[in-house]
Every structure is written in structure tokens, then in C-alpha cells.
Specification:
The chain is 8% helix and 49% strand. A six-stranded antiparallel sheet has the order 1-2-5-4-3-6, with no helix packed on it.
Length: 71
């Protein structure tokens, strides 16, 4: 997790090897549920072979409490 441009850049496990592409939508999920976290929409900044960097407008506490994302 890196603080950047009014939000956070988070690293997600999974990248181009799994077919993830830059145009995909990203949603941070609430807790251990499949429900979206309010304000948890993110954008993909970079896709590497095995990881993806996502920018979200959340705090480190929010990401710590809600670590799951849906791509």
C-alpha cells in the first residue's frame, strides 16, 4: 500500500498471467462479504505479470478492515 494522489495505490495478487487488463473495474468489498464498500471503486494503474496496482480513494484503515477486491 502506497499513499498517492489523494488515495492509496494497493497491490492486488493477480496480473496479466490471469488475463487481468488495465480497463477492468475494481471494487473493494466490505469486510468478508461480497458487498461493495461505499466509495471503494478503484482504477487500475498498472498490470504486471503476477500483480496489479490499483488506485482507490480510501484510507489505510479502510483497506486494512476491507482487504478484498473484486476485479
Amino acid at each position: 500500500v502506497d499513499v498517492n494522489n489523494g488515495g492509496l495505490d494497493i497491490t492486488v495478487g493477480g496480473g496479466s498471467e490471469l488475463g487481468i487488463a488495465k480497463g477492468w473495474r475494481v471494487t473493494v468489498l466490505r469486510g468478508e462479504t461480497s458487498n461493495p464498500l461505499s466509495g471503494g471503486t478503484g482504477t487500475i494503474v498498472r498490470v504486471n505479470k503476477t500483480t496489479t496496482i490499483v488506485h482507490v480513494s480510501l484510507t489505510t484503515n479502510q483497506i486494512g478492515a476491507n482487504p478484498n477486491v473484486l476485479l
